Each structure stands twice: as structure tokens, then as C-alpha cells.
Amino acid sequence: xNYEKSFYLMGKRGNNAFSYxxxxxxxxxxxxxxxxxxxxxVRVGEEVVxxxxxxxxxxxxxxxxxxxxSVWEGTPLIVVDNHNHVFYFWYEAVMKGLLRxxxxxxxxxxxxxxxxxxxxxxxxxxxxxxxxxxxxxxVGNYILPAQKEGLLGELCFVTGEADLDEKTFLxxxxxxxNIDLDFFAPGMEYIDFLKARAFIxxxxxxxxxxxxxxxxxxxxxxxxTSVLKKLFR
Length: 233
What we know:
Elements: E1 7-10, E2 28-31, E3 34-36, E4 44-54, E5 57-64, E6 67-72, E7 75-80, H1 86-95, E8 103-108, H2 126-135, H3 143-149, E9 152-158, E10 175-180, H4 193-204, E11 209-213, H5 221-232
Parallel strand pairs: 3-6, 7-11, 8-9, 8-10, 10-11
Antiparallel strand pairs: 1-2, 4-5, 6-7
Helix pairs in contact: 1-2
């Protein structure tokens, strides 16, 4: 199994477990298929990909029409909506020889996404990765399983403007640059955009893989796709 075809996530699992009992008789979430393309192909879709309570109200969030595999200045770049999906594409990159195990993670996100999952991952092939990504992981717990299993090595969390001064891993060769576009959501305007963009591009130029999430629950998707194009234009 992989992301060649879109599907609906059913049952109380993965991201669909959020507010499960409050979302009707058969809650489900859409998971887009992946296409090869450019950043111009990153477009907002019409399907709900995330639902949860926010301030006492149910938020039903539309995500991307498709996930997009692309290349930026020779570096593979993957764009998804809910951030846990990058877990699959990290392993896919290893299988393709694009990334070595033990890679450093540069995580640019207003959240650390470092909660522990209910079940740890054991490598058994990409089909197992796909199932684990969608049925066990959610948007807040996908990093530690990858580190515990050995895919990730050191972690660098960039969750605010002060972290943009970090230079330790700038010339690291085996590195994933993992961006959540909610780093540019309302409420984060205190961060200098040009400084953030410079940090991201510096690491992008030396990364083995770039993964980006548009995070529908945390940032309006038209804003997210606009920021994405401004970052990598």
C-alpha cells in the first residue's frame, strides 16, 4: 500500500481518532494521492482531511487536492497536508537511496510534534510504514518513532525566532529539512519572515530531503500554499 490512490481513513485510528465520538456515526477523513509535479501543483482540495474541536466548536478542515513530489534546486521535496504523512516519505527516500538512516532532522514548526505514540514502529517494509503512518500516527507524534527506530539521528527543533540563530547543523550532509507552514500562521507574525526564509533556504541547499506540511487545522490553506511559494520561489 502507498499513496498512489486517495482513500478515506475510517475508524478510531490515526488522525481520525480526534473527537471521534463527537463527529457523527461514521467519521472519516480524506487522504490525498501523491503526484509528481511542481509547487504550482500544490492546490487546496474540497475534501475534509482533519476534524477536531477548537474553542468548543468543531473545525472541519479541507486539505490538499494532492500531495506533491517535486524537486527544489536538485533536492527532493515532498508536500503533504497533515504532517504525520512525512513519516512514510522519509522511509521511501531511504528505500530510494536518497537519504541515509540516522539523518539529522531540522524541524521548523510552531509545535515539536514529539509526543509518544501508543505503539512504537518496527521496520518491516514500506507497506508497514504506510499502515503505521495512517493508522497509528497523528500530527503530533511522528518524530520520536522515526528516531527510536533509527531513521532519525539528532533533532533540531525550530519553534520560534530565537531558534533561527542555530547554526550547528548548517553544513550537515545527511539532513531532512521538515517544515510546517503553521510556523507562518496568524499569531506567529512576530517572526521576521525574511530571517525565517533565509534559515530555511540555507538548510534546504544542504539537505538530502525537504518535507513540507500545510497543516490544515493550524493555518488557512490558501495562506499556507502562498507562503510555500514565497519561501521557495
